[in-house]
# Entry
Amino acid sequence: MDHHIAFLALGLGNGAVYAALGLALVMTFRSSGVVNFGTGAIALYVAYTFAYFRRGELFVPIPGLPRTVSLGNPLGVWPAIGLSMVIAAVLGALLYAAVFRPLRAAATVAKAVASIGVMLVVQGVLALRVGTNPVVVAPSFRLQPLAIGDARVPADRLILAGIVIAIAIGLAALYRFTRFGLATRAAAESEKGAVLSGLSPDAIAIGNWALGTMVAGASGILIAPIVPLVPLSYTLFIVPALAAAFIGNFASMPLAVAGGLAIGALQSEGTYLQASVGWFPQAGVAEAIPLILILAFLVARGKPLPTRGAAVQRSLGRSPRPTRITATTLLATGVGVVALLSTSGTTRAALIVTFILAVIALSQVVVTGFAGQVSLAQLTFAGVAAFTLSRLGTNLHIPFPWAPLLAAVAAAAVGLVFGLPALRVRGLPLTVATLTLAVFLDAFWFQNKTFNGGLTGAHVAKPALWGLDLGIGAGQGYPRIPFGILCLVVLVGVGAGVALLRRSRLGAAMLAVRANERSAAAAGIDVARTKLAAFTI
# Structure
């Protein structure tokens, strides 16, 4: 029992980070209607800034300039925290002014997609400037471990949890008893009413974004001595943070904090069970915790996120009925063949990668463009098909083209499962659910040595048809034209199929569901079947 308590206490360190990020998510959503997927990346940037301050350097994220500027001497913990918070506040204000203010009248999902773009840009810039090697930060607190029975727990975990709880109490008091908090609540209820009262919704949003970014930055600073700074791992903290914010329905700060701390503790307990219980899954347990909580929330409540008073102009993307499919297909095929024949080396490889990514983009056209269901799991479906293809070819010796077709069927089955939350919710909650499912599948399958082939990887047999080698090749012949032709044929075939789907009754039903589910149901369309068909296709 002592070990269980010790691991639950150990998890409070990560739980404090999830709680702080969840607080930042709640703050930015309440003030501007943005669910900021880039919160984890922002926390990482502030953590890097803090780490370099401790070394006596100012981190410069702008490419082309020196990476750091010397400050002469290393800064202490509190001066480094203070300067990092100032930089975080400036960053939050700039992000709102440059990215999200122009989108203030857009749909919530559109703002979320923009925040994903922010996440990718910040993550890419950090990887470019500091690389992917971990950066270790000295502990901010030097305390003796606490004894829990036979186990010992670092005291800083409990201190981190206490700091985040104190931050939450302070923020709750700020929003409850100050004029700024009253103005924030007024703007959230009705932006037009706030303007008529002499308030500036933009100024309120900028203030909240500055505060939210400071809270996110504080989470990065808190976790930096525990988890070395690595660009990719920190950005994935957004998944449990989203689960914490969902527990608070993006409105309640106390519930978001409690949810974040509980997720961290449960993930730590899951890690202990992985090591001590033989039958327990050996991968994906930590990622399953936020997934289970989000799905439980969606099933139990199934309500949309709280709305704000902003006037949202919802505009559906154009989806004209395709014409002259045969002529367009032949023309596109000819252009693709000429492009392959006239290029070589890295240019031809980039062209082939473009063909492949275009197929994935077409999958997004079906599920989001036609059916209106925003999915962040399309690359996960591609991974499912890829690993399945390896098993079919290597273990079962199923030849080309049957192995790729069966692998695509396996991905379609997984897509059907991912589409099940769409029967209960729509919009942004569905987006978060697909992201969480994708992260879980990546940890449970793609990064599991039992399933992914280990250090040697998952071998895929080169395609061959009627004795013709269609493989990508190696050496000076890389990439071979036959493989490029194969990718082009798949792209053209999928593109023509999507065009025909748009012209079919099922395509029309998808557009009707996208426009208005209730009207579609009243017209006799099976909404549930249409949604699942979109995810499956």
